[in-house]
From TrEMBL:
One GO CC annotation: cytoplasm
Top EC class for this record: transferase
Parts of the chain that traverse the membrane: none
Residues bound to UDP-N-acetyl-alpha-D-glucosamine: R93, R122, P123, I124, D125, Q126, D305, I327
Residue stretches making up the Enolpyruvate transferase domain: 7-406
Organism listed in the record: Lactonifactor longoviformis DSM 17459
Annotated gene: murA
Keyword set includes Cell cycle: yes
Main location: cytoplasm
Xref: Gene3D superfamilies: Enolpyruvate transferase domain (3.65.10.10)
Name of protein: UDP-N-acetylglucosamine 1-carboxyvinyltransferase
Classification via NCBIfam families: murA, PRK09369.1, PRK12830.1
Amino acid sequence: MEQYVIKGGNPLVGEVEIGGAKNAALAILAAAIMTDETVCVENLPDVRDIHVLLEAIEQIGARVEKISPSVVKINGSTIGDVSVEYEFIKKIRASYYLLGALLGKYKNAEVPLPGGCNIGSRPIDQHLKGFRAMGASVDIMHGAIVARAEELHGSHIFLDMVSVGATINIMMAASMAVGNTIIENAAREPHVVDVANFLNSMGANIKGAGTDVIRIKGVDKLHSTNYSIIPDQIEAGTFMFAAAATKGDIMVKNVIPKHLEATTAKLVEIGCEVEEFDDAVRVVASKRLRRTHVKTLPYPGYPTDMQPQIAVALSLAEGTSIVTESIFENRFKYADELSRMGADVKVEGNSAIIDGVNKLTGARVSAPDLRAGAALVIAGLAAEGITIVDDIVYIQRGYEHFEEKLRNLGAEIEKVADEKEIQKFKLRVG
């Protein structure tokens, strides 16, 4: 198993280029199969989740041509199978976007339930409610969601809770339904807007993406397009907090500053200087950080995917901070790992109470998930001594060339495969 080994204590300084948004890319690649013409998608992030989804798309018969690590051409005219294998779903939740895409195009789709998800739980019931409202029969058979329709028709759908996945999946299916669909209480995230823009570039008729009411006029067919994905606001925010935690100075390039407003506001609140440019943001942390309270909310609120990163910064801030998680139940799994590094974190229900300490010290920790893994790397970079982060396969799911980008900012970090390589790193950095 690969690990990161880190020698902390260096302020991160320099420039970093942000890749395409993983969450937008996953939905856009699924939507690309909805036409029989060739679609070219640019600014793809070079991460594991994207590679897995492209394999799933190939497995159902589409032609996938990788032009470069960030550019792919997809042609869905050769799809012979509307059933996606469990192998792919097990690895990435977002394979469920193939449901909306296949149902919209073929009025037929069979996709396994995402990774051990009990159907009663929040994430997928809203998707199915939307498909049923458009006239599809949806059954759970042999661990898969089977959706079929003679014809999909427009409908008025009110989501019980704001769900990015359901908004996108319903939007895809509705773009090729007969008549008009209205989605109320829709998610407003930038990647919802990006998927709508992508579908519109293929000839769909979607209005209102980015607000809580999306209106879709169904069309008979979609056509080819060339499309470039928006930058990843979570990757950008991760580097912004890396600057804060290490007392660094980082210019984060290729971003849309508007998408980062909630993150930027918190960085300013805890005492960082943030300078915004047209497509870049500079974060400078020259003094000890201040305490704050933060609560995760759907966009445009503070993103749940940026919650572990701010917790690391606050563990080094002066005073007591409270971080409240209102989106996911299991988002504090990293708290025990952070405590091993000397942080003072107590989790009570859906809040973490963080008493700032003067310093963190290196330890062996394990990444419990994608964003928490990145946050533990930041903690290691800010800590005294050597930190080893296990289970980095999670981190590789969503951050492209993470260790290379950090090294370019002055971090001492290496990807290693065994104890021997860890010892070699320790000898090299002294």
